[in-house]
Amino acid sequence: MTTPDPAQLNSARAQAVALSLQEDIGSGDITARLIPADVTASARVITREEAVIAGREWVEEVFRQVDPTVTLTWACQDGDRVTADDTLFTAEGNARSLLTAERCALNWLQSLSGVATRCRHYADRVAHTSVRLLDTRKTLPGLRLAQKYAVTCGGCHNHRIGLYDAFLIKENHIAACDSIANAVAEAHRIAPGRPVEVETENLDEFRQALDAGADIVMLDEFSLDDMRTAVAENNGRARIEASGGITETTLVPIAETGVDYISLGTLTKDLKAVDLSLRLNM
């Protein structure tokens, strides 16, 4: 499993925030011009519901790009649980700047906190097991690194970041290479040291992947009995990941089979933003 490189994450954050500001502000915030240019104010951001926070650095980047003289004071850290009406942060500075930055800052914070909150809900449900819950590449376009960061704030873990940092050999790759063994051998040849995972659809394919030397074997929509069989036969030779059609109902029984990982597209693709509010004091 991999995590975003910090430099890559910082660059992606700055670019994504710049795009979000450009689409919102465009040629200028005409409503903010109703306020005299020299007026200062303070603002308080609260949450209207329980949540797990993620996205502080995105908020800070928004205000940095809009007006670096605005001062933010945080009452929470990324990964913290908060309850309804809690203050998340206060901001002080030019009133125009506070109102211009408001929506973009809250969009980032509510969205990434929504991911973290969902992840914490799932992680808490399997905390009695040793399984790790993984995200997938089912992320919102352009927001992958941000969402994968938020996943970790919620107590879950990152799968591969993209198509470049780990192999995931699926049915079509196997067909093109003629066999699981050929596909795994070729993966080890062209990128030694990169993790090699094979998606399997039955126990026979699982055994082929083990014999081929896969680092991780994915069990795609296996029954619980077949998962238990795979875990017993594996005996530490590879790491085992369960995936495919996993729901809140099936999550805990799957975790209790002894698999190492469970991957869930819902951690990032089924996003429900947290309800936040900014209150301005002149």
Please describe what this structure looks like.
The strands form 3 sheets. Strands 6-11-10-9-8-7 form a 6-stranded parallel β-sheet. Strands 3-5-1-12 form a 4-stranded antiparallel β-sheet, covered by helices on one side. Strands 2-4 form a two-stranded antiparallel ribbon. It is α/β, with parallel strands linked by helices and 282 residues long. Strand 10 (239-243), helix 9 (248-255) and strand 11 (261-263) form a beta-alpha-beta unit. It is elongated, with a radius of gyration of 22 Å. Helices cover 44% and strands 19% of the residues.
Q: Order of strands across the widest beta sheet? A: 6-11-10-9-8-7
Instruction: Name the structural class.
Output: alpha/beta
What is the helix content?
40-55%
Rg over C-alpha atoms, rounded to the nearest angstrom? 22 Å
Order of SSEs: HEEHEEEHEHEHHEHEHEHEHE
The major sheet is characterized as: 6 strands, parallel
Average pLDDT reading: 96
Name the CATH homologous superfamily of the largest domain: Aldolase class I
Q: What separation lies between the terminal Cα atoms?
A: 48 Å
Corresponding CATH architecture of the largest domain? Alpha-Beta Barrel
Q: Find the count of extended strands (DSSP E, 2+ residues).
A: 12
Q: Strand fraction band?
A: 15-25%
Q: Tell me the count of domains.
A: 2
Return residue spans where pLDDT drops below 50 for at least 5 consecutive residues: none
CATH class of the largest domain: Alpha Beta
Shape assignment: elongated
Tally of helical segments = 10
Write down the CATH topology of the largest domain: TIM Barrel
